[in-house]
Write a structure and sequence with these properties.
Number of domains: 1
Number of strands: 2
Number of helices: 14
Shape: globular
Order of helices and strands: HHHHHEEHHHHHHHHH
Helix content: 55-70%
Radius of gyration: 20 Å
Length: 361
């Protein structure tokens, strides 16, 4: 909204600062972080009062969790989304269609996650509503978003899959592209959801991935830098850097309360929303494959569950002591802070690898 003040820059020159994406991205980080930090205690108290026993803890999970995490309220994603929305509405260009597409997917996935969390809390069960129905809803939202993104993409990039490292390498997926894009968005949402199992484990890699894609969006959305790096220029996607800044700020505010021992859990409300947001930005910037690198930790978490389930059904044996894989390392004797911090390190390394693909051509 503040962007509109730049229209008056011909009258008052200092207002031109609101045109700069970097300035507004910084403002989004500060605004979202301050909002979550300021209102966080009130939101936590309200959720604790409403939820009573808090998030139900899985009986088949690590036994230590039954003692250390019982009674902790969930739906902390509401805190993140509140700060995120305020910052996005305040600092982004309201005329930018990519902002509204990303915001719609984020809130849509967040609503699905909220309903799932609500059922878990009210029924005091780790099972929410039907997994197939949930995936169906996510798929519908994602397909609609991909169709809209394709409509706004440059004609030369519509329904095209870009390959990192390979210069000018595009694969025309045609009518299959919205399905592929939806797979990326839904997969991203659920992969982050799988990762959210320990205090601080999901939110920091999400912030790292969003900061990385903020840089990518800024570079891809700028014709000069895109030409210099020889990546596909996607007009108007630079505004998504401000959106990513809002996530980083809201995540920092949330981490203050989610750091071990957590006062609140993110829940499906936050993990699905943030994962969906990452997937949408990857599709919009034509960096879907790079998301698998930057978000490699999330991919690892999801694949560990898929491998575990497939192995047990086919052979009756488990590959990991427990899935997702962060529980496997807990079962091997790693302390929770060890698992979390080491996974953060992996997330940083993968983010650097993802950024490196911009220069390697």
């Amino acid at each position: 909204m503040l962007y509109l003040l730049s229209d008056l820059s011909s009258t008052f020159t200092p207002l031109n600062v609101f045109r700069y994406i970097t300035f507004r991205a910084g403002g989004a980080v500060f605004t979202a972080g301050l909002f979550v930090f300021w209102f966080g205690p009130w939101i936590i108290s309200l959720l604790r009062l409403r939820q009573g026993k808090g998030q139900p803890i899985r009986e088949d999970g690590p036994q230590t969790h039954l003692l250390t995490k019982r009674g902790t309220p969930t739906m902390g994603g509401l805190m993140i989304l509140a700060g995120f929305i305020v910052a996005v509405l305040l600092w982004t260009n309201p005329r930018n269609h990519y902002v509204w597409i990303t915001l719609t997917v984020t809130l849509g996935f967040g609503a699905i996650g909220f309903y799932d969390d609500y059922l878990k809390v009210t029924k005091q069960s780790h099972k929410g509503f039907s997994g197939k129905f949930r995936l169906g809803l996510e798929g519908l939202i994602a397909v609609a978003a991909c169709v809209t993104i394709a409509a706004y993409s440059p004609l030369t990039l519509q329904n095209q899959l870009a390959f990192p490292v390979l210069k000018d390498a595009l694969l025309n997926l045609g009518l299959l592209y919205p399905i592929f894009g939806a797979f990326v968005i839904v997969g991203s949402g659920n992969a982050v959801n799988m990762t959210d199992g320990l205090d601080g484990l999901a939110i920091v890699p999400v912030m790292i991935a969003c900061a990385t894609f903020g840089v990518i969006a800024y570079l891809v959305g700028n014709s000069f830098t895109a030409s210099y790096l020889q990546v596909n220029y996607v007009r108007d996607t630079g505004e998504l850097a401000v959106v990513c800044g809002a996530v980083v700020g809201a995540g920092l505010g949330f981490l203050w309360f989610n750091a071990p021992p957590a006062q609140i859990f993110m829940g499906d409300t936050g993990s699905l929303a943030l994962g969906g947001l990452l997937g949408t930005i990857a599709v919009a910037t034509k960096h879907e494959i790079v998301l698998a690198v930057v978000g490699g930790l999330f991919v690892l978490e999801m694949m560990s569950v898929i491998i575990q389930v497939a192995s047990f059904k086919l052979t009756g044996k488990r590959v990991f002591r427990m899935a997702p894989i962060h529980h496997h390392f807990e079962q091997k004797g790693w302390k929770e802070p060890q698992v979390v911090i080491r996974f953060w390190i992996i997330a940083v390394i993968l983010a650097m690898a993802g950024l490196a693909t911009l220069k390697l051509r």
